[in-house]
From TrEMBL:
Belongs to the SFT2 family. Keywords: Membrane, Protein transport, Transmembrane, Transmembrane helix, Transport. This is Vesicle transport protein. PANTHER family: VESICLE TRANSPORT PROTEIN (PTHR23137:SF6), VESICLE TRANSPORT PROTEIN-RELATED (PTHR23137). One of its GO terms (biological process) is protein transport.
C-alpha cells in the first residue's frame, strides 16, 4: 500500500535499503572484493545500471518530488536489482532471457 499511496516515502526507503544491502555485502566479503566483483567485465553494465537506477530513484524522490517519476524510478530500480542479483547465479540471466523471449514471441 505504501508503494501506491506514498511512493516518495517508499522510493527513499527502498533505495536506502538497497544501499544498505550493498554495504552489508561489502562488510561480509570486504569492500575491495565487492568493488572488484562489481567491476568484473561480465557485471560492469549491470552494476552501472543498478547504481544509476539508485541515483535516479533518489533524485526523483528527494529533489523532484514527483510521485509518477518516483514510481517509474522504483520500478526501474527493482528491475535493475533483479537483473543484478541474477548476475551472481550461473546461467540465470541467459535462462531468464530465453524464457522472456519465449513468452514474448508472438509467432506460433
Amino acid at each position: 500500500m505504501l508503494f501506491f499511496f506514498h511512493p516518495i516515502k517508499f522510493g527513499v526507503t527502498f533505495t536506502f535499503d538497497n544501499l544498505l544491502a550493498l554495504g552489508s555485502t561489502a562488510f561480509l566479503i570486504g569492500p575491495k572484493r565487492q568493488v572488484t566483483m562489481m567491476l568484473d567485465p561480465v557485471l560492469i553494465y549491470v552494476t552501472a545500471l543498478y547504481l544509476a537506477s539508485i541515483i535516479i530513484a533518489l533524485f526523483c524522490a528527494v529533489y523532484v518530488h514527483s510521485k509518477i517519476l518516483t514510481l517509474f524510478a522504483v520500478i526501474l530500480e527493482f528491475g535493475a536489482l533483479f537483473w543484478y542479483n541474477l548476475s551472481y547465479v550461473p546461467f540465470a540471466r541467459s535462462m531468464v532471457s530465453k524464457i522472456m523471449v519465449g513468452c514474448l514471441d508472438t509467432e506460433f
